[in-house]
Amino acid sequence: MAESSKEELLELIKRLTLKISDLFSSSLNNLDTHSIGAVAGLAVAIFFTWRLLRSPSVSQRRQQKRQVSSSSTPGVSAHSNAVVVPSGVCSTSEDSRAQNVVDEFFQPVKPSLGQIVRQRLSEGRKVTCRLLGVILEETSPEELQKQATVKSSVLEVLLEITKFCDLYLMERVLDDESEKRVLAALEDAGIFTSGGLVKDKVLFCSTENGRSSFVRQLEPDWHVDSNPEIISQLARFIKYQLHVAPFRPERAAANVFCAPSLEHFFGSI
Length: 269
Prior knowledge:
Layout: H1 2-25, H2 33-72, H3 78-82, H4 89-105, H5 113-120, E1 126-130, H6 141-144, H7 155-164, E2 166-172, H8 176-188, E3 202-205, H9 208-218, E4 222-225, H10 228-234, E5 240-244, E6 256-259, H11 262-265
Parallel strand pairs: 1-2, 1-4, 2-3, 4-5, 5-6
Helix pairs in contact: 1-2, 1-4, 2-4, 5-7
C-alpha cells in the first residue's frame, strides 16, 4: 500500500510539473490578475505537495505509537490489539486532498476580452472599421436618413479595441443630417467617453470608393468591412481584414477573415 501511494505521489508530481510548464510557456507579457492568481495557486500546490512528502513517515510513527500504547495497556483484549489502521490510508487521503488542490488552482483560466482582442488583432496598432452593419444596426445610407442605432452587443469589444489601438470609424452618408445622427448615436452610447476615440476619427464620405480611399491613406493593420467589393479591393494593400458576413466567400484572400459580426470574431457573444 505504501509503495502504491509512493507511485501515486510520483505521478502527481509529474502532473504538477507538466502544469507548471504549460503555465510558463505563455508569454510573460500576457500575465494579468488571473495568471498571477494561477502562480499563487502554484505556490499553494507546492506547499501541499511538500506536506504530502512528509505525511507517510509522520503517519507511520503515530500508528506505531498507538500500537505500542495498546499492547502495554492492561485489560485490553488481543482482539482489540489486532484492529490496526491500515498503512497508507492517511497517505491516500493526503494524496487526494493535494490532488484536489492542484486541480482546483490549475483549472483552465478563461482569457479576458482584452487579451482576446489583442491576440486576435495580432498586436495591430491601427484599425479602420465601417459603421453600417458592423457598429450600427442600420445597413444602408438610406436608413441613416431616418435613424442611427449603435448595436449594444458591440460596445464592449469596441471599447477594448480603443484601449490599445488607433481606431477610425467611417461610412458613406447621403446628407449632413445623417452625419449628425450617427455622431449623436455614438456619443449617446458612450463611445467617446472612454478617451480612445474622438469625433475627428469618425470619417464620412459620399461614395464607397471614398471609404476605400480613406483606408488606403490611413494604412491600418486591420480593416473591418461588410462590403465584399471593398474587401477584395483592399486585400493586397492591408495586412489583415475582417469581412463581416454570414458566410465566408469561397475565394477569400488568405489575409481576410470572416465572421457574422465583430463581436462574434472576438468571442464576446
